[in-house]
Give the backbone structure.
Amino acid sequence: MTKRRFPWHIVVFMAPAFLVYTAVMIFPLFNTLRLALFTEIEQTRVFVGLQNFQTLFFDPIWSEQFWNALANNFWFFIIHMLVQNPIGIALAAMLSHPRLRFAALYRSAIFIPTILSFVIVGFAWKLILSPIWGIAPSMLDAIGLKSLFAPWLGREGSALTTLSLISVWQFVGIPMMLIYASLISIPEEILEASEVDGITGMSAFWKIKLPLILPSIGIISILTFVGNFNAFDLIYVAQGALAGPDFSTDILGTFMYRTFFGFQLQLGDPHMGSAIAGAMFAIILVGVCIYLFGIQTRLRRYQF
Amino acid sequence: MYKARSNLLNTAAMHGALILYMIIALFPVFVILINSFKTRRAIFSEPLALPNAETFSWIGYETVAQQGDFFLYFQNSMIVTVGSLFFILLFGAMAAYALSEYRFRGNLLLGLYMALGIMIPIRIGTVAILEMMVATGLVNSLWALILVYTAQGLPLAVFILSEFMHQVSKDLKDAGRIDGLSEYTIFFRLVLPLVRPALATVAVFNMIPIWNDLWFPLILTPSEEVKTLTLGSQVFIGQYVTNWNAVLAALSMAILPVLILYIIFSRQLIRGITSGAVK
């Protein structure tokens, strides 16, 4: 019996993924958090502890922008939760109806906006909502609601909500698909048993299906949360790095980009940018922890 | 009798709702596409009409062809997407095999470590990524993007692929070992072909976000010769804001490749999502 050789093949299989992932994702992540503790004075890096965060949260010049971006980001997330996910669930419930014809066609067509890039979505809606082109006002005119039209993207009060709804339009396909997947995996026997007990139609949805798909609803909620607090592209494309009008559509992603890269006359500051990234990291981590320990463990999972 | 009628009403209502939503989903795309083929005057006078002999025009596409280097952008996007997918699949499958096939100390810990990245967006580390790419001279090269997207795609790829690797029959691999095949041959010749459907699912999941990403091209590869299609069209449209023909044509040209890819892969994508690969 020879001595067992060192299992080199495991190292060979594991190494490329481990190295790329560690070097390009994990290391920069911690390095960014570390950079947040430094600042640059006369072109040398100086350790300043938590001072950047203190500036970010309490210095009026920074804190006003930060809290504005954070509040806007929460509003962005709330709209997604209240509009995107219920619409997604409703569409999935209809699509999963047995014997519905053309279901595959509807499903593929409704998913199309999700595959388009933010550049396309942002500009396309900007053109459609533009008062110059006049598609939106003339369509509202056709149903007699022309008085409702306003340049929504250009007004401080409505720009953020409009952009949130555009983003909802784009991403409704994701909750739809995930909920659809879990709805069609509910075994037929359960539905038949409830039918025998006289539970059909809408009440079957509320009383039987909805409790069974709660874990999937939990997953789409956390995906929405992470996606929204990491969003940037749509706002940047539609409103530019300044997230106008007057920062009313600024969210953490655009705020970080502006701070880190600089804009117009302001120079970029990688250390303050890192501090904002640190704040985003903390928010996402808290969200994920609430989901993992507070929600996921309490949801009852049913094994079929 | 009563029940049949209410069922019919229900079905009609469902079709109505789904068709309405389908129109909402497709309408903007349709408006952009039809107007890209019209003269400037027709775009404004009748934005919802299809182009006809009188209003048809290639002017927008001509401007785009003259002013923008869309062919180069397209090529860059292709290289980045295909390159990243290749590394995600190869490295991801290898790591998934190591984690699911062999028992070794630290296996569970390593699996958890790889899974960390599923929930934490790579964008958080952008400042340090840019610094690293500048230091290594990779900034403004397509390799920078390929590396970032590979790192971004690996966690979920490893997670999904190891689920599938568990299902490959143990007997098959042991038969290979008895025949004297090396561990590498077993992986590349026996296991990899069997998990091809899972590889396709992972590829389709990663393809669209990589193709559409704006953040990393904007930060890592802004120079002209390495622009991706997404960034290229963003910059182009930004410059030509007032030239509606050019903007609409550029938008249509950006929509087309994704739409074609989607039509080819939509079955795979939908089957991938609904087979529960992401649950």
